[in-house]
Amino acid sequence: MVKPLNVTVTDGRFHIENYPDAVALKRIDTPIARQLQAMTLHQFDLSFCRDALVEIARLNREENVLTVEGLWVAALARYFKCFGISKSRSQLSAQKILRAHSGAEAVFTYFQDLRDKHIIHDENPFTQAFTGVAVNSKEAQYKVADIISLAFNAFTVDDAHLIQFTQLVDITLVWVNAKRNELHNILGHEYEQWPHQDLLTLPDIQYTVPTADVVGVKR
Description:
Blueprint: E1 7-10, E2 13-16, H1 31-58, H2 65-81, H3 94-98, H4 104-120, E3 127-135, E4 144-153, H5 159-192, H6 196-200
Antiparallel strand pairs: 1-2, 3-4
Helix pairs in contact: 1-2, 1-5, 2-4
């Protein structure tokens, strides 16, 4: 079972407070270890989504339109990030996760379209804009009063959207947590069989604080 960790970093080296008998923290880089890394990142993103949706439900939407819209956009972006193609982590499969839940794949597709064709790429009618001419009466000095341009953006954070997306996030988070525990236990069993000295020869885990010059670099 994966445990919550209290982690400190000193000079790029990790110290885990939860294990008083531990003398070293070593890195493993195998296919199963990389799967666990991906699940941990997915769990991190999905937990953010869940917290954002809880906060949206708590807020008065009419009085906090900007905050609610910002949290909603962030939650949708972080959720579908888990299903997108990435060279740095394996993606989740909607079919695998949702197939046991009737209607869930249709809900997934709806919110994916909302994210792709409205929020990110602005292709569907949820956002509309118009350019027009305000025409004066014949008696006016000028025929044209003004050229106008208007934009309308659908506010999609209503109760129905919030409930359905929260359910989708919860289903996905339950699956990811179970998969993370499964991989965690496989690795624990495997490395318990290793000689102690071989475990100590594994490389240390080291963390480098990212700087602005690596923003375009794949990890």
